[in-house]
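Deviations from the work plan: none for this task. Representative record:
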Amino acid sequence: MSTAGETTPSQTVGPYLHIGLPWPDGPFALAEGAEGGFWIRGTLYDGAGEPVPDGLIETWQADPDGRFDHPDDPRGAKAWPGFRGFGRCETDATGEFRIRTLKPGPVPGLGGAMQAPHIDVSVFARGMLDRTVTRIYFPEETEANAADPVLSSIPEPERATLVARPAEDGYRFDIRLQGEDETVFFDI
Amino acid sequence: MSTDPDTGAVPLAAGYRRDHGVHPPLDYPGYRSTALRHPKRPLHLLPHLLTEVTGPLLGEDRIGETDNDLTRQHDGEPQGQRIIVHGQVRDGDGRPVPNTLIEIWQANAGGRYRHTGDNWPCPLDPNFTGVGRTLTDDQGRYRFVTIRPGAYPWRNHDNAWRPAHIHFSLFGRAFTQRLVTQMYFPGDPLFFQDPMWNSIPDEKARERLVARFDYANTAPEWALAFEWDIVLRGRESTVFESEVDDD
């Protein structure tokens, strides 16, 4: 049996990720035109408060029932029509990304505990030798957020960086890689 | 397996091993762009729960007919040394990772990317885009045909040159296994001054990014071959739920 030490190391996506990674349907975790969706939009900022125009955001989440279309969901894989659960969007010249999706349901945690609805996020960019990982939580889920084992383990005011803000067509979730309002990132 | 009717608990699969010692630090002054793009606060431990042990299982619908042969994507042949790049994707426990999407992108033979941001005064090749995709087979094996990319200069430090490399992106089967990395070529004289290469703390881990020249799989009168295996994170031996049950 090999050891953990044999993992292939990460390297930056570099400045030219745009030629290889964006997909025409990338931002559509929920298929374009499917019912019930909303946009999550945000801007990726660097430590000088400047937008990052050469980043890539990826999201992974449960469906509205809190289920995953994946064999390692112990309740069994379950597909939701038109829903991929995975979104990918390069940042544009203004550092903005967008993901069209559905709101995930609560997801089981440890024991009988439930996690609040959340979306896992990976951030890639030139200047990042490895991805960083964060989570999006929802502002209207006050009670579930307070009980969430991951979110509640983070002290305020940092905790607030993980909660999206309501927006006209969905939510807004800005990501600050460094600085005063630095987004909480996770050791994954 | 199903939900426990008394507690509502679902048994969780084991998490994945945290192998950060293998990866470069996010703050690495030798690579100047890290300065404003690394978090300064400590990372918070994220337990590997359902969202982390699952991940997108993308399929054939993401792959076009010539996506695994970067020399056949245009009417004419691209310039440069035709190469076969192949290998196996496994996890840290030695298990093959089957049916997983691999995406690659690279410069052309002269070191020029087909990207508006690339001003390196080496011409574009009208017959080369530099983008490929494939799925591993049921044994985790993959194979691309492409052109050996050239080295190119960049503005990181005085007389900075990137060693020839191919960018690779892999999903594995779990959010935790997501990996973006670069494959290098054996014997490249540019490693010593490359901050991407030097950012990897462990010398043995660096060497794992170097493909092996594979004469045996060279296609006679057609293409040289390189073999490069990729290892994604393996599983923790402990299952969370059994820990909870023991309490």
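Chain B touches chain A through 93 residues (CB under 8 Å).
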